[in-house]
Amino acid sequence: MKLKHFLIIGLAIAVIAVGPLSAAEDDDVSILSALDITPFNEDTNVTIDGINFNVPKGYGEQKDIAKDDDKYNLGSEEVTLSNHQYLNEKGDMLNLQVIFIKDKNYTMDSLTPENGSVKKTINGKEGFYSEQDDTAMFMYAQDGKSVQVVGKKDVVSKVVV
Description:
Elements: H1 3-18, H2 31-34, E1 44-48, E2 51-55, E3 60-61, E4 67-74, E5 77-87, E6 93-101, E7 118-122, E8 125-132, E9 135-142, E10 145-152, H3 153-159
Antiparallel strand pairs: 1-2, 3-5, 4-5, 5-6, 6-10, 7-8, 8-9, 9-10
């Protein structure tokens, strides 16, 4: 299985996790309260598998679906996946994913861009960027790991540090 499949799995997890939002349609219940999520009162630095991110004010982590250092064997490769999802009161999702493959050192040259992605540098990180509707994805390599940030296009550049 290729890295692309893990990215698709991560996005599938994100889509499944957003399903409970329909339970929060009652005007008296906020989305975050219904999902037992506490939003950050200010921009907050978080570290996932050694990679630092800046989660904007108003987003809270959906802790019940967080994955940390989940290990998978793909033939002779051992893959470690960490995936965290954050939501804000509007229901906007922010997904942060870090993938490490034992005995593989990810670099910009070893990343496989999605169709339609373009090379872009965000906050000093060179990677591949794509947009669809109001959602953006930025994938880059850091410390031998593949890092992916998916969220509203105006948020992605604030998250990468």
